[in-house]
Specification:
This protein has four domains: about 1-45, no CATH class; about 65-135, 2-Layer Sandwich (Phenylalanyl-tRNA Synthetase, Chain B, domain 1); about 150-350, BirA Bifunctional Protein, domain 2 (2-Layer Sandwich); about 370-455, Ferrodoxin-fold anticodon-binding domain (Alpha-Beta Plaits, 2-Layer Sandwich), CATH 3.30.70. The chain is elongated, with a radius of gyration of 38 Å. With about 450 residues, it is of the alpha+beta class. Helices cover about 35% and strands about 25% of the residues. Its EC number is 6.1.1.20. Tetramer of two alpha and two beta subunits. GO terms for molecular function: ATP binding; catalytic activity, acting on a protein; magnesium ion binding; phenylalanine-tRNA ligase activity; transferase activity; tRNA binding. Keywords: Aminoacyl-tRNA synthetase, ATP-binding, Cytoplasm, Ligase, Magnesium, Metal-binding, Nucleotide-binding, Protein biosynthesis, RNA-binding, tRNA-binding.
């Protein structure tokens, strides 16, 4: 009956005086005493006659609760130095029968105090009667611990800010997918991890990549006439471990862009996303991590879901950390999406890599000098290779190298391309003279010719 009176008002939000009384608890041990008192009042005030005996509909054997607690525990929790007599007197005032032995109290809790079951309840009663104002205020001892994010948490938080500042919107995809999609776009080969009892055929296998989930999100948006979509996701992928039951969880970050990131406007032409735009987002993100080793992009055709001529693996030093490129047209058709560019990075590996110490570089008060160089070079020589060589041979005053032109049309031999760069020289402490810059610039031209086979134009 009591349970019914408690649940019904809560479920239906219908409260009465009786329901509130039951919610606060009923002393079942007082039933017979209360009945005798009610019968006495009927006889005395209502001129009634009390029949002998008592009709019991349901007999509840109410046993008193016994709680044991020692004096040391009480003083430890409250920070006090209470004596046995003080605590015994408090229990006496509460009308709790108590047996004391070896500084341990065995307290019999009356049925009217149905809210007391554990030692902490007794400590609360002692504090209440002793007086909260009498409890000592003690500062914690020991060296305080300053709460902060660990390195992984900080990188993940910063990654979200960087991706959103680049124009991408965060997506959260299911970790479970189909076996086919779980293997697609995997950065490293691995067996898949399947559920023994999946809820549906679409959620049977733990993912090895984040890209497939992002492509599902793009397809969802494209089906609703949203064709300019840029998404990213930070989450875990799951690589199987043959020696262990559980898979290895690795933090990844991935992005997918389709359509245009710069919508058509009266003063701006529409700019469909291309390889270099998404590569620029990745390059800016990796630069923010301040990696010590150089980042390189190597063309690859090893990813069957990616376009073989517009995909590159990403290396930091000699370690593979991700890929970037265009989704293969066949794959895009299977996902029912348009031309799409994606990237995926192993965030766990990137966090573990050594970082370069970033130092403040003051802005020079002295003017800079620029030199331009144009060259014919083999098609397979990358911009990163050229820039690295220029920085290596450019001298102490070389501040910046900027590619400003790429051409491989008419008047350029087959297998060649034309690249043009601007080199900026500047000294922090003095004004440079032409002779200093000319000497350093000629060393760059010589290195380009000798080491890369470039033809200076």
């Amino acid at each position: 009956m009591q349970l019914r009176f408690v649940k019904l008002p809560i479920n239906h939000d219908l409260h009465s005086e009786a329901s509130m009384r039951y919610e606060r608890g009923i002393d079942h041990g007082m039933t017979a005493t209360a009945l005798d008192a009610a019968a006495a009042m009927i006889a005395e005030l209502g001129d009634g006659q009390v029949a002998s005996g008592m009709v019991i509909g349901r007999d509840e054997d109410v046993q008193p609760t016994t709680v044991t607690i020692d004096l040391a525990r009480i003083n430890h929790v409250l920070g006090t130095e209470l004596s046995l007599d003080t605590v015994s007197d408090i229990f006496k005032r509460l009308d709790f029968p108590t047996v004391v032995a070896n500084e341990t109290f065995t307290v019999t809790v009356p049925s009217r105090r149905w809210d007391i079951h554990i030692p902490a309840d007794l400590i609360e009663e002692i504090a209440r009667l002793y007086g909260y104002d009498n409890l000592p205020a003690t500062l914690p001892t020991g060296q305080p611990t300053i709460g902060k994010l660990n390195e992984t948490q900080q990188v993940i938080r910063d990654s979200r800010k960087l991706m959103e500042s680049a124009g991408l919107t965060q997506a959260i995809s299911y970790s479970l997918t189909t076996e086919t999609k779980s293997k697609a776009f995997a950065l490293h080969a691995s067996d898949v991890t399947k559920l023994d009892f999946p809820m549906s055929s679409e959620r049977t296998t733990l993912r090895l990549s984040l890209v497939s989930g992002l492509l599902d999100d793009l397809a969802y948006n494209n089906a609703r006439k949203e064709h300019n979509v840029a998404l990213y996701e930070e989450g875990r992928v799951f690589y199987s471990q043959p020696e262990q039951v559980r898979p290895k969880e690795i933090e990844h970050i991935a992005g997918a862009i389709t359509g245009s990131m710069v919508p058509k406007s009266w003063g701006v032409a529409e700019q469909p996303v291309d390889f270099f735009q998404i590569k620029g987002i990745v390059a800016g993100y990796l630069k923010s991590l301040a990696l010590q080793d150089a980042v390189s992009y190597v063309a690859t055709a090893e990813h069957p879901e990616m376009h073989p001529g517009r995909t590159a693996d990403i290396y930091v030093g000699d370690q593979l950390v991700g890929f970037v490129g265009e989704v293969h047209p066949t794959t895009a058709k299977a996902y029912k999406i348009r031309e799409t560019y994606v990237f995926e990075l192993d965030l766990t590996a990137l966090i573990a890599l050594p970082k370069a110490r970033q130092q403040y570089q003051p802005i020079s008060k002295f003017p800079s000098i620029t030199r331009d160089v144009a060259m014919l070079i083999d098609d397979d020589v990358t911009n990163a290779t050229v820039v690295a060589l220029i920085n290596k041979k450019g001298g102490a005053h070389l501040r910046h190298v900027q590619l400003f032109d790429v051409y491989n049309g008419s008047h350029v031999p087959a297998g060649k391309k034309s690249l043009a760069y601007t080199l900026t020289y500047q000294d922090q402490n003095a004004t440079l003279v032409d002779d200093d810059v000319t000497t350093a610039f000629e060393k760059v031209l010589t290195a380009l010719t000798d080491e890369l086979g470039a033809e200076i134009r």
